[in-house]
Amino acid sequence: MFHLIALDIAGTTIDDHGAVYDALRTAVEETGASVAAEDLQTWMGTDKVTAISALMRLGGLEPDEATVAAAFERFRVVLAESYATHPPQIIPGVAEAIARLRGDGVKVALTTGFSDDVVEPLLASVGWTVPQHLDAVVTTSDVPAGRPAPYMIHRAMAATGVHDVRTVLAAGDTVVDLQAARNAGAYAVGVLTGLTPRAALEGADHDAIADSVADLPTLIAGLA
Fold first, then answer.
1. How far is CA 73 from the centre of its chain?
2. 20-24, 27-31, 53-57, 87-91: which has the minimum mean pLDDT?
3. Does pTM top 0.70 for this prediction?
4. pLDDT of 148-174, one tens digit each?
5. Are strands 4-7 and 14-15 parallel, antiparallel or unpaired?
6. Strands 107-111 and 4-7, how do they pair?
């Protein structure tokens, strides 16, 4: 039924212990803007430059290019320090689920609101490579706009040779992941391994909610 599974990274396939949330909040607050928890949640799945700009504005500051660039660099530094102290880990059962899906002939790609320079060390830390463990990795460096735009999912399709969006399932732990899946025309699955409350995911347009990416092979089998 599905030829491609597109998965978010932090909070969906890799447990980063909430480091992205903390780094983003820190970077924005250090500009002098306040960060409301609900606003942070709303902008989490987007590319981080866009998120910083939006959160600054919501926190009472008008973003400018230099301040946003400095805040993004600070985000990267804080995140790297956090990863060094508390190394990210693959969420239990996810590696096995991905291997099972690929063994069944399904392509598996990762998509993310991170740029290449953040993603490469993150994946290296858990030992994931293309093509040994994954079929493609798409970052915000590869597209003109991140989520909720559909471009990363469509880029994953191009990278894996999948032509029909009706055969694509996209899963993530944020509302923006679901919005991107829907905008791409893909089957949209919210997962509960991140920090987004179930109610928020259920309140978004979606096709299914799963406890974890580890449950996707069973979910897909049930749709056959």
1. 19
2. 20-24
3. yes
4. 999 999 999 999 999 999 999 999 999
5. unpaired
6. parallel
DSSP per-residue codes, 10-36: BTTTEE-TTHHHHHHHHHHHTTT----
- Tell me how far CA of residue 169 lies from CA of 3, 13, 60, 112, 199, in angstroms: 8, 15, 38, 15, 21
**What is the sign, positive or negative, of the torsion defined by CA atoms of 151, 155, 161, 167?**
negative
Q: 112: pLDDT confidence band, cut at 50, 70 and 90?
A: very high
Q: Which of 63, 39, 48 is nearest to 9 (CA)?
A: 48
Tokens encoding 188: 């949209």
CA distance 1 to 64: 46
* Pairwise CA distance, residues 117 & 139, whole Å: 10
Phi, psi of 122 (to 5 degrees): -65, -50
**How many Cα atoms are found within 13 Å in the side-chain-facing hemisphere of 6?**
34
Q: How distant, in Å, are the alpha carbons of 21, 182, 196 from that of 199?
A: 19, 18, 8
Indicate the DSSP class of residue 110.
E
Sign of CA dihedral 5, 8, 11, 16: positive
Token pair for 156: 């994953």
Cis previous bond, 87, omega within 30: no
For residue 159, give the amino acid letter. A
- Tokens (6 digits) for 201: 């995911």
Which residue reads 């491609």 in tokens?
4
CB of 219 closer than 8 Å to CB of 106: no
